[in-house]
TrEMBL record:
UniProt-recorded name of the protein: DUF3000 domain-containing protein
Pfam families per record: DUF3000
Length: 193
């Protein structure tokens, strides 16, 4: 996180709030170094679905970055912007579904709307990738992955925005809401993630 101008600043309060949130026990959320140069003040979180003892997840992962710029960039329509990323491996048959990208975006919108998260100026991309191993990687077979990158300007409290992002990471990994401690099928470890 960048230097905070004071303990009572709006950004310092927002960062402290994010650090105090708790989430479902099968998605590990932690603070990570924030990318530099995006805004004067930033905080970043990472989420990993059911990580192993090394912190790696074969199911899915995500990043959530809260940006704050008191100058209120016109593209943001205010002083705050959220940038998020979520990705998960898929079975190749699912990766060929022509509606997969639309479904991934709709999961984010539905998660935000179900929590009554107030936001405006959403944008993003949903990318599906199919891969096939050759030569030394032929034994890995075919693979697929879904990735969603999105940003929006939040209004009101930040809690529903972070909760929606965690839900999205879980949904992409095959964990619908309320599915804690239920087996995930179809996860594949590949070196091409």
């Amino acid at each position: 996180m960048s230097d905070e101008p004071g303990a009572d600043s709006a950004f310092a309060r927002a960062a402290a709030h994010l650090r105090g949130l708790t989430f479902r026990n099968d998605i590990v959320v932690r603070e990570i170094p924030a990318p530099q140069g995006l805004a004067p003040e930033t905080i970043a979180l990472a989420a990993d679905v059911r990580p192993d003892e090394d912190g790696d997840s074969i199911y899915g992962t995500g990043r959530f970055i809260l940006l704050h710029d008191p100058q209120e960039p016109s593209a943001w329509g205010g002083p705050w912007r959220i940038v998020c990323f979520a990705q998960a491996p898929l079975e190749p048959e699912i990766g060929t579904d022509p509606l997969l990208s639309d479904v991934a975006w709709s999961w984010l919108v539905d998660a935000l709307d179900s929590r009554e998260a107030e936001y405006h100026s959403p944008s993003g991309t949903s990318t599906k990738t199919l891969s096939k191993g050759f030569g030394g990687l032929a034994s890995e077979g075919d693979g697929a992955q879904i990735e969603l990158r999105a940003s929006w300007s939040p209004a009101g409290t930040l809690t529903p925005h972070v909760e929606a992002w965690v839900e999205l990471v879980g949904m992409l990994a095959g964990l619908p809401p309320g599915s804690e401690n239920i087996a995930v099928f179809g996860a594949r470890r590949t070196s091409r993630d």
